[in-house]
Structures are given as C-alpha cells and as structure tokens.
Amino acid sequence: MGADTTPEPYRWRWLILVVMVVAEIMDLLDASIVNVAGPALEESLGAGSVGLQWVIGGYALTLGAGLVLGGRLGDRYGRRWMFLIGLAAFTASSLLCALAPNVESLIAFRLLQGTAGAMLLPQGLGLLRENFSGPELTKVFAIFGPVLGLGGIIGPVLGGFLIEGDFFGLGWRSVFVINLPIGIAASIVATKFVPRKAGDRTVRVDVVGAALVVVSCALLVLPLNQGQDDGWPLWTWLCMTASVIGFVLFAVQQRRTAAAGREPLVTPGLLRKPAFTVGLGGIALFFGGLIGTQLVLTLFLQIGRHFTAGEAGLGNLPLAVGTAIGGAVSGAFLADRIGRKVLQIGPLVQLVGAAVLWFELDGLDAASFPIWDIVPGVAVAGVGAGMVIAALFSFILAAVDDDEIGSASGVLSAVQAIGGSIGVAIFGSVFFARAETGDFTGGFHRALIVQACLLVAFLAVTFLLPKKGRPDEEQHGITPEAASVDSDTKHDLTV
Q: Which of 16, 81, 193, 215 is most buried, taking the most CB atoms under 10 A from its CB?
C-alpha cells in the first residue's frame, strides 16, 4: 500500500479567512458608512450636493474600474504581495481621508481609497482557494457570504453612531479613522500568517484595456455628477457619448488582444454570450437603483427631516432587515424551487414597497415625523431587493463556461460597483434638483419614479437570463472538474 502523498493543510489557514473577511468588511463599510456624513461634511468642509456625490460615488467608481486589473496583478506578482500592498494603501488612504482639509482633497483621497480597494479585494478569493480545498473550501464560502452581508447592513448604522458620538472631537473623520487600527492589525496578521507564494510572471497585464475602462467610466460618471449643477451643457452630452464609444472600443480591443495571442483583461468569450452581456446591464440597473435609493432615503431623513446622523443610520435598518429576510428566503429555498422567477418576483415586491412608500410620504406630518411612518414601505422594498441580491449572480454565471467563472465574477463585481457609482450620481442629482427648492418629499418622489423605471427595465432583462442558477460553490470556481486539480494550476480561475 503506497504512502499518502496528500500535502498537510496549512496550519494557520483559518487565520487567513479571518484576515480576508476583515478586509472585505472594511470595503463594504467604506462603501456605505459615508452616506450619513452629508450634513457633517457640508458644515465642516462646505461640501455641496455635487461634492457629496463625488465623496460617496467616487470610491465605488475607482473600485469598480480597477477590480479586474487588480486581479490580474495578483496573478502576475503574487496574491499575498498584492494583498499586503492593497491593505497598506487602503489604510493609508483612510488616514488621508480623515486628515482632508477641504472637500476637493477628500474626493481625491476617496478616489485613491477606491483604487487601493481594487488592488486589495480580488486577492481574497484566490488566497482562500490556494489554502483551502474540498469540503473545507465550501464551508469557507458558506461563512464568507453571510458575514460580508453584515458589512453592508451595519455601515450606515456604525457611521451614524461614530459621527453623532463625536469621539475625541473627530466628528465625520472618525468614519475613516476606524480603518486605521483594523488595517494595521490585519496587516500584521497577514504578514505573519499568509504564506508566500510566487506569482506567475508569464501572466500579461492588459494596461491598454484597463486604461480604456477607467477613462470610459470617468467620462460617464463625471457628467452625471456635474450635469445637474451646471445645467447640462454640451460637454456633458459629449462626455457620455465618448463613454459609450470607449466601452465599444474596449470590447473590440479585448477581442483583438486575444486574437493576437495575448491575455486580455476579460475573457473574450464572455462578451459573445448574450445572456452574460445582458446580465451585466441587469446588474448595473438593479444596483444603481438600489444604492441610489438608499442614498436618497438617508439624505431625506437628514436634510429633509433633520434627523441626526445616528437617527438616519438607524433609519436604514428597516431596509437592511428587509434585505436580510428577502435574501434568506431566496437563498435558502426559493431560488432552487422556482428558478429564474425569483428574479422577477423580487423587483415586483420592490415596486410594491416603492408604491407604499410613495403614499406614506404623501401622508407625512410636516411638523413631526417618527421613522415608523415609512417603515412598512422601506421594509417591503428591502425584502424584494434581498430576493434579487441572493440569486442574481448565480443566474448570470450559469450562462458562462466553467473555465470562465473567475473572469466573469470579477467583471460582475466591477459592474456592480460602477453601477452603484452611477446610481449615486443619478439619484443624487434627481433628489437635489427638488431639495434645493425645499421640496424634499418631491425629490424623494422623483427618485422613486426613477427607481421604478430601472426596476421595470431590470424585470425585462431577467427573461433573457438562464432559468436555473449556478450552485453557490461553483460561483467561486469550485467546479467538479476543478476540485480535482491542484490549486497551483488554477490561477486562471481567479479574477
């Protein structure tokens, strides 16, 4: 009987999971924690509506634009090395945000923070796949998902608590200072316990493709943020047209890069799959509407109803709880039982919630406003959103081949972040156009109309997606074929 040649699992692998979860939660917190800082930023730095939109949406913009590139850099130079660089840069840029003397520098530092996040986040899944295997890896992702969900839920609540608590007189700056001890501790643990593993220097980084993505995204978000304030001059329309041209050029460049035998940023086969490309549009529509509406809710509570940052943070809880309930129902059994229909029921439930919220807003007393007056509509909308969030990626990934999962997941995450940034720009402009005249309820009403249009468009997109979703473990590259392959040979499955 031959000796067992199975390598002994890495002793400290569970500490790797802890560090990866901490890094992911830092990102999720920073994506939402600033939402409740609007009035504090206006009072401290004189940030107007456009400045606030850039502070919130700028982070998501550079994060989304750089995610796929960050994954490629991890493949080439080693995921541990890129993770440590990204974590250090994220922590340092958080400090810069906390020290920002004016809104212009804060915006610049937020863009830098998003770039650091794009270098940091893609390494997590690859490091977990390198250090876990088989049933353990499935268990890791079963833990990973729900824990990350908490980050998005507690972001506004924690932000409100920190700002209202005004600890050490830091005010809004504390929402960035909190990253410092967390980032430093995570860096120490990662340096000591994440094993060294060389990257693959044969992997080529498509710098031209990455530049096209960044420029195209900037040309789209810039006019959406500035257009309302400037009166939509000609340059805004030219920028948006140039953005569309840029994305088309990116698709063409990716195909030519692959045809020339070089490695493109995105697997070209993905762009030839109608269900996948349509799904990208669906993700942008859905998350643009979701993130934008959540922002408007927070702005309405703080600016329109004079809630404190802490009260506004708690005002997001009905949406968060509803999302958690909808996600649990969808993920536990509904998506498996009814398939694609869960993606159609979800937006319908959201539309019902938006309609209820509309009438709740009409009935508000101008003098007093307990948050309970709008809890039913917000919570119902959250349930519908959760139903979609829990299942959307699996149905889009069902349209791709096993060897394309890693690239596809990276693209979906990038589009999700960019969609959120676009949502902040659009919904912020819509709300502030009415809020500047003192009509806060009218601004919220208009935002609900925009959300309804996006949900109807998303509903139409769902009919073009596969009828069954891809199993959860396969969404992370744990396919039956890949399970028997040594992790050293699976770098191509990583974003």
A: 16
